[in-house]
Amino acid sequence: MTTLVTGATGQVGRRFVRRLLDDRQALRVVVRDAVRAEPLRERGAETVLGDLRDEGVAARAIDGVDAVVHLAAAFRGVDDEEAVDVNERATVALAQHVAAAGIAPFVFASTNLVYGGGHGRPALEDDEPAPGHAYPQSKAAAERALCELHERAGLGVRIARFAFVYGEGDPHLEQSLLWAREWPLHKRMHLVHHADVAQALRRLLHAEGVDGRIFNIGDDAPVTALELFELNGEEPPEGSAGRVLDDPWEGIVDTKKARTELGFRPIYPTVYEAQAAGAL
Fold it and tell me: In degrees rounded to 5, what are phi and psi of residue 179?
């Protein structure tokens, strides 16, 4: 089976692709930068140079593949229009090509940020999304369009809503303080390690009977802002312990569905187990 992976040089993509190459799986990647593509090509990946927003590139990328894992995304450091252009428009255009070609499955990486707050409990996959800014808004819009393509054109889509991804030298854990500095110390963030992102993507690639379904992917123990400061070796801001927490469940998701339907069990159930294993 030849799998197309988009976003192969991003924080998630390059770690996932490395695992596929380690297992000698047939792989095709779309890369915009020829220099960054070369190490993947040397390891055996077939490379397609170009931007997925170019329909010619998208059509060339899917030609002859058996499955697609769509990880490409625009997040930090981009304006709202680019976020929509990459996360929604390019995703839907690619999925239309995939559906027309009869390729399945199409695994789409989304985010638990689509939920917003106000649920009064961990968010469930059936909850109505209430995203608060352009990145999750564009992801939620892409999800809706992909599910419509599933119903209308038979797209074999499987959607993973990932918690905050960290580990293996990814700077995300340090970058989490950009938000945590503004939070009450008891506000929590749900995490998921790169090893478990890869596990979930593989399970979604090979699971039967899950087309058109959405799965929350996270670890077993969301951490507080205080713990994020401790993990990063930084003192919390003065006065943060007295801040009011309006919604204690915002950003926390229920992962029972992934456990029961995909057999997902975190390799790193807590960030502390990843820390003890030297996997941060």
Answer: -90, -40
